[in-house]
């Protein structure tokens, strides 16, 4: 009962604070009080009403003492500014400008204090939920699992709002990353819980790559993601490759994970194959010599040739045929789209939506050519190796000639 009462009180405080935060944000943008109908006048009215209402609510939380002071200060500034509104002269004008600026500053302080309180509550709720979830003695029901996922979503939404050094300190002190990784690696947890934890880990990297990358590289995150073998887990791997780049690809190669990613290209699940293809292209862009060798030695080129030969493959060289097919199906293709090099990217995008493995050999070769991981002489050597493997994997001279032409056309000689 006491716990439920505490939660209800926290929700009441949060509701008041969210209203205060919105009003203070509007007041920062326009602190003028000249018009009674202006947005700032509405914000001021809301703040003054909430200041009276929130005194008793905020006084019980020591973290909100500064906020109460700011609200009282703001009320005094607004009263003074409104009283000076009827006066005229340069002194009154300058005085109003100074007080208007001060109102904007105090409104900003109010918003910062509120965000800091919300961040603390978010981290307290997340830490408590993770500890409960990781406790082997307390199996969670489906409804409790739903609540846990909601808390993870709240945390991810906060991370998406941008960096905050105060929030980062809270994250590091609470050791949230380690707990999220423990959930991700926990094979007894449900798939949706592990996947949501994986997305939260990726969001932490986006929040501050410099701080959290080391924990990814030293921990079990990537191996756990690949062993899960779900579309969501592969999406996170692909996202991490983009964020961490060559160091993560080096880690994948050292632990033999690249071969596992390539094996997903042979699954029947189309979405899994498409996501694995995205991973392959990202590895091609950021991978160093050892990683690319590992991919080619694992039979990647042969697999890409097979995918390009499939119904979902095809050749981007034949975009004209694609336009004809669309016209036969009644899809309008205007002259503006059909003609001109500037329209090619849009046509390729549409073609790839229905043929995700079209020209996949050349697309991989281009990633190596324009990527960051290889030296120039390594790029030339790998292109020759790709051409050799294409000829070996092709079922006919015509197929080999088409793919070879695409590789040579799609990347510089």
Describe the structure.
The protein has 413 residues and is mainly alpha-helical. The protein has three domains: 2-121; 139-240; 245-314 and 355-413, Leucine-rich Repeat Variant (Alpha Horseshoe). The protein has 22 helices and no strands. The chain has helices at residues 2-29, 39-58, 65-83, 90-134, 142-160, 165-174, 176-185, 191-207, 209-218, 221-228, 231-244, 246-254, 257-263, 270-286, 289-297, 300-309, 319-328, 335-338, 344-354, 360-370, 376-393, 397-410. Helix 1 (2-29) packs antiparallel against helix 2 (39-58). InterPro entries: ARM-type_fold.
Sum this structure up briefly.
The protein is an all-alpha fold and 413 residues long.
Present the secondary structure layout.
Layout: H1 2-29, H2 39-58, H3 65-83, H4 90-134, H5 142-160, H6 165-174, H7 176-185, H8 191-207, H9 209-218, H10 221-228, H11 231-244, H12 246-254, H13 257-263, H14 270-286, H15 289-297, H16 300-309, H17 319-328, H18 335-338, H19 344-354, H20 360-370, H21 376-393, H22 397-410
Helix pairs in contact: 1-2, 1-4, 2-3, 3-4, 4-5, 4-6, 4-7, 5-8, 7-8, 8-9, 8-11, 10-11, 11-14, 14-20, 16-21, 20-21, 20-22, 21-22
InterPro entries: ARM-type_fold
